[in-house]
Amino acid sequence: MDAFRVHHNKIYGTHYSQDDIVSYDLAKELGISVQGAVDRVYNFHQSDDNKLVSPLSAARAAIKKLGEVYDLEIVSSRLPQLSSITASQLDKYFPGCFGGVTFIGYAAVLENPRTKVEVCLEIKAFALIDDQLHHLEPAAKQGIKAILFGNYSWNKTDKLPPGVTRCRDWPAVLKYFNV
């Protein structure tokens, strides 16, 4: 999100700070149409600025350790049109770490949207690590371990829903899973 924000400020002449973006509802956050927000995200992912994005500190080591114990899959809210760009990034930073990637996209612009919890149930996932609470609450209700990752402006909450645990960084995720 931070790289998108910096890109947006540069391209559109805005001045958003890290604390200004408090949700992934970018149409609302940017004050534009849903299609306009989708277009801006799509343009960011195709830009040179996106090529500068790298994994969070400790992410590679943590994913590798988790992959030694668990079969890892990605369930992403990215648009399916971004699959080749995402695959390239995954191959660069996490070669061979994931058994599959499912793109659910952005429900507001899809004809037949799916949820992350639906995909998790299909692939028989026992856990979901995500930085968006609205994906985790229904997962927890389905008995899936729900880990709220990070401490970002868009995932702050005074109280976590039942069954959701916050892990602020990758070392905390490894501790949670005893890896």
Task: Please describe the topology of this protein.
Layout: H1 2-12, H2 26-30, H3 34-45, H4 48-51, H5 59-69, E1 74-76, H6 83-93, E2 101-103, H7 116-122, E3 127-130, H8 133-141, E4 145-149, E5 164-167, H9 170-176
Parallel strand pairs: 1-2, 3-4, 4-5
Characterize the structure shown:
By secondary structure, the chain is mainly alpha-helical. It folds into 2 domains: 2-51, no CATH class; 59-176, HAD superfamily/HAD-like (Rossmann fold). Helix content is 43%, strand content 11%. The protein has 9 helices and 5 strands, in the order αααααβαβαβαββα. The chain has helices at residues 2-12, 26-30, 34-45, 48-51, 59-69, 83-93, 116-122, 133-141, 170-176; strands at residues 74-76, 101-103, 127-130, 145-149, 164-167. α5 (59-69) runs parallel beside α9 (170-176). The longest helix is centred in the first third of the chain and has 12 residues, at 34-45. The mean pLDDT is 92.
Concise synopsis of the structure shown:
It is built from nine helices and five strands; from the N terminus they run H-H-H-H-H-E-H-E-H-E-H-E-E-H. It has 179 residues and is mainly α.
Note the main attributes of this structure.
single chain, 179 residues, mainly alpha, 43% helix, three-stranded parallel sheet, Rossmann fold
**Order of helices and strands, N to C?**
HHHHHEHEHEHEEH
Q: Tell me, briefly, the overall form.
A: globular
- The secondary-structure class comes to mainly alpha
Describe the main β-sheet briefly: 3 strands, parallel
CATH class of the largest domain, please? Answer: Alpha Beta
Strand content: 5-15%
Tally of discrete structural domains? 2
CATH topology of the largest domain: Rossmann fold
If strands are numbered along the chain, what order do they take across the biggest sheet? 3-4-5
Uncertain segments are: none
By CATH, the superfamily of the largest domain comes out as HAD superfamily/HAD-like
Quaternary status: single chain
Just name the CATH architecture of the largest domain. Answer: 3-Layer(aba) Sandwich
Q: Measured on Cα atoms, how large is the radius of gyration?
A: 16 Å
Total helix count? 9
What is the average of the pLDDT values? 92
Distance between the termini: 28 Å
Number of strands: 5
The residue fraction in helices comes out at 40-55%
